[in-house]
Fold these 4 entries.
Entry 1:
Amino acid sequence: MELPGRVAVITGSGRGLGRAYAVALAKNGASVLINDVNAAAAAATVQEIVSHGGTATSLVSTIGDTDSAQSLVDAAVEAYGRLDVMVTNAGILRDKVLWKMSDDDFDSVIKVHLRGTFTCARAAAIQMRKQGPGGRLILISSPAGQRGNFGQTNYAAAKAGIVAFAKTWALELAKSGIAVNAVVPVAATEMTKTIPVFAPFIEESERTGAPLPEWMRKGEGLGTVEDVTGLIVFLASQASSAITGQAIGIGGDRLSIWSHPEELTSQYSDGGWKVEQIEVAFNAELGSQLQTYGIVMPAKPGN
């Protein structure tokens, strides 16, 4: 999985998961461009990578606009001569229930997550196609986008859209040899520390260095940010060239493939469906196929 000569841009990589992705890519030989809105955080990530013998530079900018996306690609090409991997990780949260969510709460999250993924991927794809065959778009999604999550109308919609991006762009970029996948990570971050059942275990692990308990690592697929990085390195490497259009989950001790939506069962009515026939169909069979929704939070161990 060595990545010498490969160049990667990682948005939102001044801290958290993005920083872990960047450090792992650099450790495996990639030259990386760090991006963050916080100059000090971006500089700290660059310093960490360089101090361990890696190659990194940074560009401080917000994510969402076309000009910002193009500036990242241009900076990578100027510094390293090419672009091979774009990891669209940048994001923000503005959590509120539907009836309390403002237009700005919605628009700001959609702009960074969904539009930012689009603009960065578009700029990267143009550069990769110009260079010749090959390239990787690694789009960061979330379980909230796969199942929905209370209070996250904006975030869940954006993350669901990112998975749809991966499927669509995998088709469009196949002839250019560019693989596109969505990653669905679960890790101990500032966000997961706000979940009461997880918080004390994450805090204990951070304080003492003790591993997270097995029920979290296996049962919930939740571990450290470093547990997620192997998948990013793999998807950035030549070994993953045949894998595209997928939503791949990782966290703790779990690695998974999320299914694509498909029809579970179908019934037919000659001439179409009348209201009364639809009611009968749901009562007879379709109703038994209704799907669950929402991220299920685990009960506190021992309860």
Entry 2:
Amino acid sequence: MNRKNDPVKNIDRERREYPRYDTEVKIYFHLKYDIQTRVKFKVLVSNHKASDSHKYSGLSKNVSAEGLCFISKKKLEKGDLLFIEVYEPKVKGPVKMEGQVRWSRKLPGKTRAKDAYFTGVRIILVDNKLVSDTIYFDKKYKVMWSTILESLFGNFAATLKKAK
């Protein structure tokens, strides 16, 4: 796919506050509130275990200090609140996140997955920690980092060593 037609690359670059890091890891998510939840009066608890809402799967495309982009078959609406579990092979157990959908767009052209969507999510909590409180600038390596990136990649110095 060329850059010109890539919807992830063309999403208002000037609005992006933090650099993106490509990822391809399995994720699962469910809506914090959905129509079925409201009709049946089910209560979702903060530990993610009591939800009766449907669980969807996806594949992450990139991650930043404050957000996550993924592909799934579920069309989400701007403002939807999600519980997300990210399965990074090097991390024991899922990384649990909560976030809010910022945008969702249908994949363009012919794809293997009929009706697949790119979705961008602003992550609010990672393992019950506020992401906004964990974003910092690593002066030594001159990079923005956060609990999201730390949870998936480890600390930045260790990530650099692995890449070499």
Entry 3:
Amino acid sequence: MRIGQNPEKENKDIKIENYHRIIVPVYIPNFEGYFSNSLDIFKLCIESLLLTVHAKTRITIYNNNSHKLVKEYIDLKYSESKFIDQVFHSKENLGKINAILAASKGNLEPLITITDADVLFKNGWQKAVEKVIVNFPEAGMVSPVPSSKVYKMFTSNNWYYGFFKGNLLFQNVIDAEAMHKFDLSLGNDKLMYKPIHLKKYLVIRNKKNKQEAVMGCGHFVATLKREVFDYGSNKPAFVKIVGGVERIFIDTPNEKLGLLRLATKENYAYHMGNKIENWMYEEFSKLKTHTIDNSYKATDFKFKPVSKIGMLIGKLLLKIISRSSLLEIKLLNYLGLDNKEY
């Protein structure tokens, strides 16, 4: 039996004051072996995030069945911080992508940053990323961590834009040490970056406002326009972090929508991995404890994909470059790269 009418029916519209949502999935089942330092790493991630976000930001933490001490830490930060306004505790590990989908579909902010739980944020990351998105209205995905090796990774729209609406050119890497730290953090037997990759990266420029950004980006930390999730796949992910699942739910939707994939020229975040090192605490100590003003408002982030013809041209350009190493080398030389081994 219901008596009376729910007063919320008269208050139909939902209005939000914030425009930037950050989603942090975390899975730390124990503190042994691979996960022995993971809680300390996660704490550095969250604490650095809280010190570097502006007032129009809110944070969602999705706990994928982590150890009870991790849950206790999350609940503590939820009670302490106004920025962390959503916490999900799952009794099963549903994987990174499903955590992101659950949080993104249920929120209204035009910008959604997805980040792994082992990222150390630096001062200024949010302002720098948002500036790139505002000055490249066609941008759908922007990372605060540049990479010199992803200029062909889901960047067909970039190639069209670079040749027909902007400029493409190689520039000197601003922070080679940060890129090398990222390489080391991956723990691979062989380093990813050759010396030339730490010297030069491919930059795309907006002709009108002169804004520049690095071509392409990874997705261990990246800010996306919410349309990438709205118009992407509506299916759940049945695998956790392998099998190309991020490609299906993040990379492909961004490219199919006609959006650019970019990174800031400066490095504004570090991938820590699963082992604590002294430099992480040194970087954390540099963070400033002060209120950060936001530079923009929600309406500043336009959804402006490249044209369908532009998308087709970009796909053709990228296909030609990818299939012919000789043409690729000649093109990179034309864009300002002297070294043939990029």
Entry 4:
Amino acid sequence: MTEKENLVRTINFERPDHIHMTFHINASCWNHYPQDALQDLMEDHPFLFPDFRRSEGTVKPELPPFLIAGNEYTDPWGCVWLTTMDGIQGTVIRHPLESWEKFDSYQPPDPDRFDHNGPIDWDKAKESIGPSISQHSIKNGEIGHNHTWLKLTDIRGYENAIYDMVDEEPRLWKLLGMLEDFNTGLLNNWLKTGAEWLTFSEDLGMQVGPMLSPALFKKYIKPSYQRLMGRAKEEGCIVHVHADGDIRDLKDDLLDCKIDIINIQDLVNGIEWIEKNLKGKICIELDIDRQEITFEGTPKEIDDLIRREVSTLGSREGGLMMIYGLYPGVPLENAKAVMDAMEKYAGYFS
């Protein structure tokens, strides 16, 4: 069974050969950990890194401007970003529409030339498998991390965006229309590249509860989600949604968008809650804890966590994928424990 066949069977609950596992090493890690130690781990875990080839010299990830520390970067929407660590996207320090006074002259970017972060070469995009970190076997595209709700907060600022919704600011609808038109343009261009999988990434939750109320999400954000994701589904694409944080109160509305896969964080939402509310209803891509157990726990506690998650949420029929993102600060022995457990339990139901 090829990796693509296994992935499709996982999504469709058609008895895959194994649980699809992704271990993603953030670019910032190459400046934080001893590079030989990272490469040793990758070499020792061929299931997770089947295409790994050891580098002879220093690994220097090619970083886009918005991932370079100390570099103020203006994205195509006019949002000014700044990060303090190479490889990790920072935060918006100046919002282009912090005041509505500039709205009459405000112009959205051109999706034929830009994505949400910067210039994009669509001819080159046709030649690559796509940007997804979750899989490298299906031709894919990404509408962008920060495409609707978060891009709105980038442009207006978080508090302003919430006030706009509560106050029913009429210009808000026009701005949301700009965002949806741009996202539709991106979607059309990804379809032209032959994408069969489209990722919609947007953090909607905080540590407790969502970043906006379910009522505001339903009124202002969900309709655009439904149109965009519905269009992708009509074109035969697998629709993958990533949403960090506590999104339990938004569960019904997200499922109503007819998505195929939901990437959801484990501990902040609760493993038993995920089992009760999502297992068997949709393919779960479980985002393994990066804040507690893998950060400051023991290797045994990490093994216990991943075994418990597989036992609780997995099934011989499929419907479970798992992903872990390594970032600076996690002890290397814990990173190894995550890799070991992901490889050990990938075949738990086979």
